[in-house]
Amino acid sequence: MPGIALVGVQWGDEGKGKITDALSRRADAVVRYQGGNNAGHTIVVDGERYALHLVPTGVLYRHCTPVIGPGVVVNPEVLIEEMDTLEARGIDTSKLLLSGNAHLIMPYHLELDRVTERRLGRNRLGTTKRGIGPAYADKAARIGLRVQDLLSPKIFAAKLDVALKEKNLLLTRIYGRLPLDRDEIQEQCRRYAERLEPHIVDTTLFLHGALDRGDTVLFEGAQATMLDLDHGTYPFVTSSNPIAGGACAGAGVGPRDIGRIIGVSKAYCTRVGSGPFPSEADLTESEVLVELGAEYGTTTGRKRRCGWFDAVAARYAARLNTLTEIVVTKLDVLSQFESLKMCVAYEFEGRHYEALPPNQTIFNKCRPIYQELPGWQEDISDAQTKSDLPRRAVAYLETIEELVQTPVSSVSVGAAREQLVDMSA
Ligand code: GDP
Ligand code: IMO
Ligand code: MG
Questions:
Q1: Residue 299 pLDDT level (bands cut at 50, 70, 90)
Q2: What's the CATH code of the domain at 325?
Q3: How many domains does the chain have?
Q4: What domain range includes position 72?
Q5: How many Å apart are CA 213 and CA 187, to the nearest integer?
Q6: Measured from the CB, is residue 15 less than 6 Å from ligand 2?
Q7: Does the structure show a pLDDT above 90 at 425?
Q8: Which residue, of 39, 220, 227, 267, is most buried by count of CB atoms within 10 Å of its CB?
Q9: Among 120, 227, 241, 295, which residue has the most ligand 2 atoms within 8 Å of its CB, making it the best to mutate?
Q10: 41 catalytic, yes or no?
């Protein structure tokens, strides 16, 4: 079956960009199906670092068609900027396809994301402030503007009027901000329309054709399972469905179009923004992981919260996504530790949880139960095959396989494209 979905197992930033890039070598199309420019996917090729936010990772290969599907929320200004930056670095973006059904992130969404976070104060979610939540909210409320509206100025103006009236009331009366100017937004969007028009197509039809031909289509997840709107640590989640099931809804394909579902997981765990994180390390350990793993957000530059591999969450992700395999990334970051912790269960008020606790209060307050594993304290960044890995590193991976009940197919041992160990070789 030619559809492959790639999803984050944890709270994002697992190295999905790098693994999508590795798989793109043999993919005909790479599709983003949810999220927007809250994503930050880093790829390192020949020492050059690319940080992609909205353009699918497949753009780096000439043979690959990058597709932005209907489930994505698109800030047209950011998309154009990203395309320009890529072009300036010699990357051809002419093949990029943009769904006319994708929703637009409008200037008032950005403003609302900022002011609602400010108003929440200590209870804020720690969003990326890219307007993601407000844009998806308007989509669900059926007052969103879509990419295709850019091509119909009259419809665009009418829809903008409706939305902006409400948003300006919110901004001025509730949040004490200045109203946004309708004509200015319309003029900006007219310029975006001109630039983006050649890319706007029915991506669903395109994908159906590709899948029917037997092309390899890669569905590139952004964010991750534990940030899923319905299945993550609500309300500390993003406003879309990053899980594999989301690929069907967001790209417009059926469950039977996807045969291989790859979960990407760090060998440890990180989270940016607020919300529960049972296996979060203590301050000293966290600082070491931040330092060794260069754990700063690709999108916002925020320091990531760091912790140990959480087998409870990973097991949940494996089931929820029906993962066929796991790719473990950043194993090299653990090389210096004498001993490693792995969270195998949670404990709350004397009760052990080997599955995700049934409610958020328990998840917030539970303590991790750790299994200690010996470290390998050896540089593994040049490893190419399983036999190049120290015995203890293999044992660490086998423990993951056992606890998550899913095979580890590859292991990433550095940020560069070639630093990837095929575990079957
Ligand atoms: P994504 O959002 O899931 O694509 O992940 P990010 O790109 O936000 O964060 C992953 C970071 O880890 C990036 O800076 C990558 O260059 C880097 N990275 C990916 N794989 C590895 C690895 O195996 N080892 C190390 N040391 N860094 C890695
Ligand atoms: P990639 O694709 C890590 C987090 C934010 C915040 C929450 C909601 O690079 O893995 P949003 O702006 O989406 O409304 O913020 O989700 N978040 C991410 N964390 N990686 C990401 O993307 C993220 N995208 C959103 O930090 O906690
Ligand atoms: Mg990221």
A1: confident
A2: 3.90.170.10
A3: 3
A4: 3-100+199-261
A5: 41
A6: no
A7: no
A8: 220
A9: 227
A10: yes
